[in-house]
Specification:
15% helix; alpha+beta; nine-stranded mixed sheet; Nucleoside Triphosphate Pyrophosphohydrolase
Length: 156
């Protein structure tokens, strides 16, 4: 059995054979002292644009694709890799358990506007916005709070 967090931050315990490997990539997209975040549909908390890496796809190509699908931002410069975090995660709406490896990159863009929610190609991400990094708190995230606050601290 493996204990993990679900999409709302609640602890759950699931059998090991339920999990599948999932590499994913996320962009901490900056504009000065602000960062791009979205609200997750299931929890209402914040997260960063990104998602799963497809077979045969490089991390950078996956990040560009995910950012475009979710935000509509096309002119994004991918910078340094900030961290890789291993996470066991359960997504209740689709009954999927993942042994995830999350690759986080620092990114920048001059673009300001995001695509409308009805055009976002992700059922979980919505309401993209620019938030001041200093105003983001640990409890704004559904899980991995300490790790994510640590990532934001690396940007300042």
């Amino acid at each position: 059995m493996i204990e993990c967090c679900d999409h709302t931050g609640k602890k759950v315990t699931l059998p090991r054979d339920k999990f599948r490997f999932r590499p994913s990539v996320y962009g901490l997209i900056r504009q000065g002292d602000k960062i791009c975040v979205c609200r997750t549909k299931s929890s209402g908390q914040i997260w960063f644009p990104g998602g799963g890496v497809e077979i045969g796809e490089s991390l950078h190509d996956a990040l560009r694709r995910e950012i475009d699908e979710e935000t509509g931002l096309k002119d994004v410069q991918i910078g340094r890799q900030l961290k890789v975090i291993e996470n066991f995660f359960y997504y209740g709406p689709t009954d999927e358990a993942m042994h995830a490896f999350l690759f986080f990159y620092e990114c920048t863009t001059e673009e300001k506007d995001f695509k409308a929610n009805h055009l976002v190609q992700d059922e979980e991400s919505r309401d993209f916005q620019w938030l001041e990094i200093e105003n983001i708190r640990r409890d704004d995230f559904p899980d991995m709070q300490d790790e994510l606050i640590g990532l934001l601290a690396m940007l300042q």
